[in-house]
Amino acid sequence: MVLECLDDGTMAFNTRLKTFLRAMKRCEEVAMQQGQLQEEQRLSNHMHDSWESGDFWVMYAALNSFAFDRIYWQKIVQRFFGPAESFQDAWKERLHLLEETEREEMELLVTRKLQEMDTRVLLWDPDEYTVAFREQLKSRKVKERKDEEK
Predict the structure, then answer these.
(1) What is the rounded distance in angstroms from the CA atom of residue 20 to the CA atom of residue 56?
(2) Rounded-to-integer distance, Cα 134 and Cα 56, Å
(3) pLDDT digits (tens, 9 = 90+) for 25-46
(4) 103 contacts 95 by C-beta, under 8 angstroms
């Protein structure tokens, strides 16, 4: 499910999910007949319910941060606040849900982030494990060069 084709991916996934769940239910039936599975242990029902309720999207967004924005605005927010006029402006339609202080804090954050974009200072302070690992790599390379020279 790539960001640009979320709806197409959803339709394809929905079709495949139905096929998968039918096969899973058959396997669960066999396992139940053999006494290896109890009714409350069936996963197919939970998976179906998760897809139908929209819980699936919450988990998918949490596990796939690259797709979080698109999934949140197209799938999750609608579940709790109803559909938006457009994906691009959905956040604007929801601003009235924030308290005045929350909107002010958001403005401050956006201002600070825009200022940080101008400086683009990236700092990385490696921890002791990273420094030790880097030293190990250097030592290994030196040793390999010496071995090659022999």
Answers:
(1) 15
(2) 41
(3) 999 999 999 999 999 999 999 9
(4) yes
Question: How far apart are the two ends of the chain, measured CA to CA in Å?
Answer: 53
**Confidence tier at 73 by pLDDT (50, 70, 90):** confident
Global pTM reads: 0.59
Q: Which residues contact 6 (CB under 8 A, 6 or more apart)?
A: 67, 70, 71, 74, 75
Radius of gyration of the chain (CA): 25
Show the tokens assigned to 23: 């096969």
CA 47 to chain centre: 18
Please give the structure tokens belonging to residue 7: 């709806």
